[in-house]
Input
Amino acid sequence: MVKTLYCQKCKKEVEIVLSEAGPHVKACCNECNSYLKFISQTELKGETTMLEIFYRIPDSKYFEGVFLEEFRGCIQLAAGKAGKEGTNYKKWAFPQGADRKPGEKAIPVSVNLGPRHTAIEILEKMLAELKGSHGKEEPQKKTVAEQKSIGGMDEPDGGIPF
Ligand SMILES: [Zn+2]
Output
């Protein structure tokens, strides 16, 4: 669990003060009280992510981007937003249960790519697809059956509105 963080104002590693802020816990500088970062509940429980990189979409009107992270031994992509002062936020959502009602616990909007080797395999295939379909080759046409399976549940509203 994180106990110290770098404070831009104090220009050094400082002790942090935690306070609740929705599904997150807010970490502030013990010395100047500046906001430092949000810490997720899982991070607090010691399940710290090994890897967390944010890629901002250059021309995104809403400062959107994607996180690449490692969590519980799996590589995940998570929807994010670039905030002010260099702080990036994850998008959180309440996942629909079997009854189609929003769940009680919010989770980051993310895609699991499995362990590192599986993630690399999937990403390389995606990369090849993207590079191959750029210009000369047509992207592989999906059959109707495949398209249906991609959509998952037959949700009339098209799923989560992100
Ligand atoms: Zn400070």
